[in-house]
Amino acid sequence: MLHEAQKTFEQRGIKGAAGLSVDFEKMMANKDAAVKKLTGGIEGLFKRDKVTYLKGHGKLTGPNSVTVAMNDGGEQTITAKNIMLATGSEVIEKLPFVSVDEEQIVSSTGALALKQVPEKLVVIGGGVIGLELGSVYERLGSKVTVVEFLPTIGGIGIDSEVSKEMQKILTKQGMTFKMSTKVTGVEKTGGTVKVTTEPADGGAAESMDANVVLVCVGRREFRDGLNAEEVGVALEGRKVKVNDEFQTSVPSIYAIGDIIHGPMLAHKAEDEGAMVAEYLATGKKPHLDYNNVPSVLYTHPEVAWVGKSEDQLKSEGVAYRKGKFAFAANGRSIANMDTEGFVKVLSCKETDKLLGVHIINAIAGDIISGACIGIEYGAASEDLARVCMAHPTVSEVLKGASQKTAFGKAVSG
Ligand code: NAD
């Protein structure tokens, strides 16, 4: 809101934006209250549905038993016909030369609990978390430098055309990117932190000072103290091995989410958990199409995609059609003063079946749902192009891009 006010209020004729400032403590308290309401809501659901909630660390002690080291002391062992593992992932914080203290050198956990907006923030890793949290602090006034080992930002699976455009947009917002660069040292020096970098393929070292360094170089499966392998749960690499019904090599034990295959995303884990519950309770066999799990970067503007990227289609040798429509030509986006970004629709050259949709927009994460529905039901780009969509809305750009893909031209834009 602050960023929007600073960017648009004067032009819109709303006075006073120049005098706005942030009470960061209050902002964080409001965020904490939202988190508490949501997690408290889940506890409420447990009560309603008569789910017993044991607060403690669970350890498998057999195919049908879990022993819990209770947070408030003591141990409790429970037995069950079935067990579902959903232990998730943890931040990889241990670059050999970095020690995270969650105050000056922080992971995403510490970055969500800073006491003040840092004047200078260095972000190590320009993936999902680096862009999301880096851009939040940049919009709150920090001078942000992102150091990324690869030549592209946005993490795994992002379409390279989208990644390039997003880098341009974030650079315009004020973020600095040091691409193809590795961090070789992070050292606390008095009140600040000195970050030393080198070009990824060798070259002269440089250094910069930061008030806070955010380390976000990925997450890894969390299985500490779970005792899974000891009771016979097989792994494939670092992942727990499961069959199509999320059953591990121990038939009574199931696993879902970040500890099994697929992207480490909350909505993917949620759907898998619900499916396991459905298998066990009803014997029905619903399935999840992993090609249709959307990814969203919650930056401003957001980035969202579903299905294949152009890079993937090229490397798989798939012939495709491509249509792109910019938000700059969309009435609602112009009125909203939010014209950055585009929708790109990719379909099979021969059959026109939708293969992938990629969006940069303030509400890309919401617009992508239309594309998910299309892909889930096997739509062609022409199907989306012929859906009647309300005018004036931002979502119409999905229709415009689909028209470009299906017919090579669109009604407007
Ligand atoms: P990431 O895998 O998205 O990005 C890590 C980045 O760090 C990569 O671009 C990598 O090249 C770079 N990197 C690795 N080592 C480096 C080094 N030494 N120096 C410089 N760069 C280095 O990981 P993340 O941002 O930490 O997020 C972790 C995971 O959490 C994501 O993969 C995602 O699954 C999940 N997540 C998702 C969302 C979302 O969906 N909106 C939000 C937060 C987290």
TrEMBL record:
Residues 293-400 form the Pyridine nucleotide-disulphide oxidoreductase dimerisation domain. The keyword NAD applies. InterPro entries: Class-I_Pyr_Nuc-Dis_Oxidored, FAD/NAD-bd_sf, FAD/NAD-binding_dom, FAD/NAD-linked_Rdtase_dimer_sf, Pyr_nucl-diS_OxRdtase_dimer. One of its GO terms (biological process) is cellular respiration. Gene3D superfamilies: 3.30.390.30, FAD/NAD(P)-binding domain. GO terms for cellular component: mitochondrion; oxoglutarate dehydrogenase complex; pyruvate dehydrogenase complex. Signal peptide: none annotated. It comes from the Eukaryota. The gene is DLD. Keywords: Disulfide bond, FAD, Flavoprotein, NAD, Oxidoreductase, Redox-active center. Its EC number is 1.8.1.4. It is an enzyme of class 1 (oxidoreductase). The keyword Acyltransferase does not apply. This is dihydrolipoyl dehydrogenase. Its cofactor is FAD.
